Fold this sequence. Notes:
With 304 residues, the protein is α/β, with parallel strands linked by helices. Helices cover 35% and strands 24% of the residues. The protein is built from 10 helices and 14 strands. The strands form 3 sheets. Strands 4-1-9-10-11-12-13-14 form an 8-stranded mixed beta sheet, sandwiched between helices. Strands 3-2-7-8 form a 4-stranded mixed beta sheet. It has a two-stranded parallel ribbon with strand order 5-6. α1 (44-55) packs across α8 (248-261), α8 runs antiparallel to α9 (266-280) and α9 (266-280) crosses α10 (293-302). The radius of gyration is 18 Å and the shape is globular. The termini are far apart. The model has no long low-confidence stretch (mean pLDDT 94).
Amino acid sequence: MKSKQPLVVGVGLCALDYLIMVDRYPAIGAKIDAVDSDIQGGGPVPTAICALAKLGCRAAFIGKCGDDHDGREIIAGMQEFGVDTSGMVIDKNARSPRAFIWVEKGTGERTVVLDRCGIGELSPDQIKSEFLETCEYLLIDGREAEASLNAAAIAREHGAQVIFDAGSNRRHLGEILSSTDHLVGSASFARAIFPELPPLEAVRKLFNSGEYKAVVITLGGDGAVACSADGVILQPAFPVKVVDTTGAGDVFHGAYVYALSRGYDLAKRLKFAAAAAALKCSHIGGRKGIPSLEEVERLISDCR
């Protein structure tokens, strides 16, 4: 029997983020000094799952890392938020994924280089199905395509809803979209699918292209736009002092699923997720700025 508190499971890419903040992006061949730096757990789904855990959900993550320093940091970082990592696959012969991130001071814009050259993809037979048979929500990012499709099939068979973090065009995209209940994509994803359409039209066309409960497009500093059977909703961004945008979309996804699990309607889900994402931007990295439930609710209340 399922717990009264819904379980959210994430399947996707995990990495350790190496963050460097600079006054300006260096030109080729230049040498400059950093103004800040940090090392944090990263990856779209793991960061969203950490946000879910901090907000109060039961959360578990299934991914793959190496039996190395970075892998141990990846797992420990999620455990600090209370995430169940017992479904993690540890490859003793692999090097854990790493992301190298340059953040521009003042704008908070970042450039990311992902290094997953030392490890293969998570395979469907490496996933513990008991997580998927008992979860109520599954979050995937399409990075581990075959494993994500298998996870989605099992989860949906047992009544779970699947949320797809569509950051960019992925392998097996059509199959993933067919397995999706809530499509929450980036503006760049929407442009790749419908390059000629503005977000308000793209979100409506995306919604009409499949059997979704809702489609959301995140717009960075312009907020988010969503479409459901009730029509289109525009949610402005919350005003905050931006330090670093790394992980803002990931926290948005986690907060969206949290709000979904609480039965919020689409407009309230968007507002809650936008507030959580804005608060994250006040800190360097994707994890240190993850807000508490009280902080999200206070920002929403203050901006009424």
